[in-house]
C-alpha cells in the first residue's frame, strides 16, 4: 500500500471514530427548550424551522452553567460566558413567548441563518468552557496568551451574532465588559502563577502531569491575457469550474460551481481587435471590473471557457430576476422596502462612479436566495460622458423610460432616476407598468403628455404606503430638474425601512393610499418563505446512515454559514465524490479554508494532501513547511491523528525529514494516550511506557 493509500485508509478510520465521539457528545435531550415551547402552545408552521436551533442554544446555555458549577479551574472566566449565555437565554425565551409580535423575524431567511450561526458559536463557547474548566487535560490551554485570544474571539463572535439577530441593544445593556475584563485578568494571573510553579521543574514535568491526566481519561472512557489590450479581466482556469449538484440553468446562462460557490456562466464573444466593436467590448469589461466594489451589483469573477465557449463568470442568483420572482410569489412590504433601498444603494454607487445603466427595471435585478437584490445586465451601460448607447428595441423599454429620452434627448442620471421611480411602482404592485396600454407605442404619448401610472385601491389588491408613493412621484417628475438625486431617494427609503422596523408590530403606523386598506394588503395571511436548515448533527447522522443527499444539503448550507466543520465535510464529499463529482483539487482548497478556521481534521487532511506529489514535496520547502505547520496546528488542537503522523514522520525519517526517534516517540506516545489505534499498536510493539518522559529507544 503506497503512502497516499495509507493516509486515506487511516483518515477514513479516524473520521469514523471522530464521528462516533461527535454523536456521543451531541446526543443531548432538549428537555428545557421543549418545556418552554410547551408553555407557548402549538408551534405554527412558520416557527418550525427555528425550533431545533432554539433548542440547541437553550440547552447549551444550561450545559455551560453546569460546567461552571463543576469547574476545577478558571471559574471566573467560565462565569463570564455563563452570564452571557444567561442573557442569550433570556432573549431567546422572550422571543419564543412573544412569537406572534415577532412574526416578521420568523419570515426572514436571514434571521434563521443568523440563528444557525449563533448556535454554532454557542457550541464553540461550550467547548471552550469545558476545556478551560479542566485545564490539566488540554496541553494548548497552558498558554495564557492563547486563552486571552480565544476569549476575545468568542466574545467578539457573540457580539456580532447579537447584532445580526438585532439583539445588540439589549445585550449591550446587560453585559458589563469592565467587570468581565476584571474576572478574566484575575484568572489569567492565577493561572500564570500556577504554570510557573509547574514549569519550575522544566517542561517535562508539566507534560508528565498532562500524560497522567490523559491516561486517566483513556482509562475512564475506553476535523493573450493580453486579449483585451489594456484591460485584463481575471482569467479563471476552466478546470476550476465544475458542474453543480443540480444542473438548472437560466436560458443560455449556465449554472456552474467555482471555488465551492454557485456561479453563472454567460456566453461572451471575443471580438477581433480590428473590429469596430472592439473598443465597445473593452469599455464594457472595464466597467464590470470597476463595479465589483459594490455589494448591490452582481459580482463579476472573470473570464473562462466552458464547454468550448468563452464565458463571463458572475455570482449565481438563485431566485433569478425580481420580475420572475414577483410574478409567482407575493412579497411582504418589509422585503419590498429593503429591496428598493438596496437597489437605490447600487444605483447611487453607479452614479458616484459615473456609470449609467440605461435599463433600470425589475427584470434586470437578480435575487439571491436571501432576497438580496443585485443589479445586472450592463449590456447598455456607459461611463458618464461617453456616447449614449443605441437601443435596438426601445419600445420594450418604454414603460420605464424617461420622457426626455423618448424625445431623443441625451440620457442622463435623471433618466435613471425616472426609471427607478417606475421600478418602484412595478415592485409595489408586482406588475409591469402600463400593461393595459396597447400598442406599446401609445405609452410614449401617454408619458410625454405628463400622465403616469396610478396608485389605486381595489379590494384584495396590494396596498402601498403614502410615503412610498411620494418617493415614486418625486422620481417620475416630468421635468428632470425637479427629480431628486439618488442620495435623496436613498435617505427617504432608508428612513422608511427604519420606520417599518420600529413599528412593524403596528401596521397602522403607516398611512396607506386608502384608509380602508390593511397595510399588508392581500398578504395579511402569513406565508413563510423561510427554508428550514437541517441541524448539523442531523447531517452527520445522515452521512453515517449513507443518506448522502441529505447530508450534502446540510453540510453545504452550514458551510455557506461559515461553519468550519461543515466546510471540512463539504471538502470530504468532493474528495470522495459523494453526491457531487469527485474533485480532489477543490476538496484540498476547502480543507485549507476549514484548516485556517481551526478545524483539526481539515488541518490533517490538508497537510497530507501536500504529499500527494511526493517527488515535488521532497524538494518543495514551502510545502514541507506547511506540512509541519498544519500538523502542528492540529496537534495543538489535541488531534491524535496529527500526533501520529508527526511522530511517524520523525521516528522513521519519512518524506526526507531528519530522523529524530525521541521526538517521534513523544508524539506517538501522546497519540496512544488518546487511544489512537496505530499509536497504541506501536507502543505495544516496542514496549514503550506511556508515562515515561524519555524514550527507552
UniProtKB/TrEMBL annotation:
Question: A Gene Ontology biological process annotation?
Answer: cell surface receptor signaling pathway
The reply to whether DNA repair figures as a keyword in the UniProt entry is no
Recite the UniProt keywords alphabetically: ATP-binding, Kinase, Nucleotide-binding, Transferase
Where in this chain does the record put each Protein kinase domain?
239-496
Q: Where is this region: Disordered?
A: 1-30
Q: Name one GO molecular function term.
A: protein serine/threonine kinase activity
Q: Note the superkingdom of the native organism.
A: Eukaryota
Family matches, as Pfam families = PK_Tyr_Ser-Thr, Sel1
* Polar residues biased stretches: 1-12
**Name recorded for this polypeptide:** Kinase-like protein
